[in-house]
Write a structure and sequence with these properties.
The chain has two domains: about 60 residues, Phospho-2-dehydro-3-deoxyheptonate aldolase, domain 1 (Alpha-Beta Plaits, 2-Layer Sandwich), CATH 3.30.70; about 250 residues, Alpha-Beta Barrel (TIM Barrel), CATH 3.20.20.70. Helices cover about 35% and strands about 20% of the residues. The protein has an eight-stranded parallel β-sheet. Strands 2-3-1-4 form a four-stranded antiparallel β-sheet, covered by helices on one side. Strands 5-6 form a two-stranded antiparallel ribbon. α2 packs parallel to α10 and α5 packs across α6. It is elongated and about 70 Å long. The relative contact order is 0.12. It binds phosphoenolpyruvate and manganese (II) ion.
Length: about 325
């Protein structure tokens, strides 16, 4: 439930209400907006029976939150969140571009990719060191060696770095290197991994599961935030449908749906959504137009030689041209 305080509620009145909540063993989460303060209550609210909290000084009204996700719920936190990551912020007013190879294949290709995406205007370098491959015989990633190359690329370019973690062991290692952890589609409901990411306090990019509903996705984010890590960005990366012309079906409507249900930023990954290089640009423009907070795009020095996801990877030239062509759309969306 949420308690909406009157616009003129004093700090003492707010403290008294949170005191009642915490005194009953529940958690009180304060969201101070320009107009009003909202107190979100997490826990078994039946414990508040008899406390007459609705009669407390400064309380305007009490609303029930029926959704099972609370802390990521827009009702708990009506203002859109701005997430600090590395040397930048993700959220309202910004359009974040994360780019790089699907997998870190070797030192030189990563450094070369970092220089190219930096020059074209990206602010994040992506690259997989732990790859969740469909076949166990496919390249599984360079693991910690790859993370070392990512760190070197950050030092060389000033780009923030993001890497996917596929296990608790990978997470434990990656937190020593990265600015942002990525939890991939296949692990969206790996609840132990989500909880550990929540305890890590490192910002997390949470991709939507292959067949996950928006509510399941938001509940996955709730696992992270409920462990104390509020720095979460969501990523729509396409869902499984009957359509085979694209690798997945990009659910663009998820962007305004998330905006209505949650205060967390949401970006779009047109590479994994479509699986086809030629569709990256139109889908990136659509992402900007629909109000996404950014995109994640795969870029490779030689897509036809890539160890994974070559057909959906852009060349350096194609990425540069994407960044140029995207500019008016980003401006029109009121972002920079
Ligand atoms: C990736 O970004 O490298 C990846 C594997 O994406 P997804 O989890 O969306 O499939
Ligand atoms: Mn990939």
């Amino acid at each position: 439930m949420i308690i909406i305080m009157k616009p003129d509620a004093s700090a003492e009145a707010i403290a008294k209400v949170t005191g009642i909540i915490e005194g009953k063993g529940l958690q009180a989460h304060l969201s101070r907006g320009d107009e009003v303060t909202i107190i979100g209550v997490v826990g078994d609210k039946s414990r508040l029976h008899g406390s007459n909290i609705e009669m407390s000084e400064g309380v305007d009204k009490i609303l029930n939150v029926t959704e099972s996700y609370k802390l990521v719920n827009k009702k708990f936190h009506p203002d859109d969140s701005v997430i600090p990551v590395g040397n930048t912020f993700i959220g309202p007013g910004t359009f974040t571009v994360m780019a790089g190879p699907c997998a870190i294949e070797n030192h030189d290709m990563l450094l070369e990719s970092a220089q190219a995406v930096k020059k074209a205007g990206a602010s994040f370098l992506r690259g997989g060191a732990y790859k969740p491959r469909t076949s166990p015989y496919s390249f599984q990633g360079l693991e910690e060696e790859g993370l070392r190359y990512m760190k070197e690329a950050r030092e060389a370019t000033g780009l923030n770095i993001i890497c996917e973690v596929t296990s608790l062991r990978a997470l434990e290692t990656a937190v020593k290197y990265v600015d942002m952890l990525q939890i991939g589609a296949r692990n969206m409901q790996n609840f132990e991994l989500l909880k550990e990411a929540g305890r890590s306090r490192v910002p997390v990019l949470l991709k939507r599961g292959l067949s996950a509903t928006v509510d399941e996705w938001l509940n996955a984010a709730e696992y992270i935030i409920s462990e104390g890590n509020p720095n979460i960005v969501l990523c729509e990366r396409g869902i499984r449908t009957y359509e085979t012309a694209t690798r997945n079906t990009l659910d663009l409507s998820a962007v305004p749906v998330i905006r209505a249900k949650s205060h967390l930023p949401v970006i779009v990954d047109p590479s994994h959504a479509s699986g086809v290089r030629a569709y990256i640009e139109p889908l990136s423009k659509a992402a900007a137009a629909v109000g996404a907070d950014g995109i994640m795009v795969e870029v490779h020095p030689c897509p036809s030689c890539a160890m994974s996801d070559g057909p959906q990877s852009l060349t350096f030239e194609q990425f540069d041209s994407l960044m140029q062509n995207l500019k008016p759309y980003i401006q029109l969306a009121g972002r920079a």
